[in-house]
């Protein structure tokens, strides 16, 4: 049976600036959804709020996982429910090795001990599939990593944690052609009745390797158009001006989309009316 992540009429703001203005989206395991759109129109805000970024206030709507609201849940509780966010800008954590971090995360999300031998075997297999350095387990988390290594490290964590839903926020930025192919093939290889994916991207090239079932265009804090792969080609050829003309809307820019804070406790639930 497929799991379902549903976003219903989601509105959110930071301070007095409304960023999400009524987002509706349904994702099932086994599906890949891509969200595209101009800079500053709410894409990264959406990903952060699904995971529980505390700087945003949800003012209306809901986020449901299998018909249960996750808005009251802390970030770690959402992770234990099976939601994973790959950062657009992964942070460095000196003094914590990759292997210690991932093994601790696996124990925290599953609530079970992770036997060392099986962990090492799975870790080495995932590293090999992602073509990562043999000394990765002993390196500090993202410290001294190139941009491409950081992005592949996010996918490594995803492969080890095996979430129900992964949100990949511009995971393709900073990747060369070979790394893009490796990341794309590894993400595609996970899609199953136990795993669904939400991709946020500007570029068609990632979607050459991760084939989306649905493509959504997000403008001004809303999903304004949904279609298939034909939308990708049209965006690649013509940008977003045709959307503006077809729907009769102006494209707003939001500076808040350029800021990225470390996740803490959960996003605020809607205020009682």
- What's the alpha carbon Rg, rounded to whole Å? 18 Å
Tell me the number of helical segments per DSSP (H or I, 4 or more residues long). Answer: 9
SS-based class: alpha/beta
Spatial separation of the terminal alpha carbons: 36 Å
* Residue fraction in strands: 25-35%
Q: How many E-type strands?
A: 12
Q: What is the 3D shape?
A: globular
Give helix and strand order, one letter per element, not per position: EEEHEEHEEHHEHEHEHEEHH
Strand order of the largest sheet: 6-9-10-3-11-12
Overall pLDDT: 89
Largest sheet entry: 6 strands, mixed
Helix content: 25-40%
Which runs of at least 5 residues are low in confidence (pLDDT < 50)?
258-273
Question: How is this structure best described in words?
Answer:
With 273 residues, the chain is α/β, with parallel strands linked by helices. It is built from 9 helices and 12 strands. The strands form 3 sheets. It has a 6-stranded mixed beta sheet, with helices on both faces. A 4-stranded antiparallel beta sheet has the order 2-1-4-5, with helices on one face. Strand 4 and strand 5 form a beta hairpin. Helix 5 packs parallel to helix 6. It is globular, with a radius of gyration of 18 Å. It starts with a strand and ends in a 26-residue tail after the last helix. The C terminus is likely disordered.
Keyword list:
single chain, 273 residues, alpha/beta, six-stranded mixed β-sheet, 12 strands
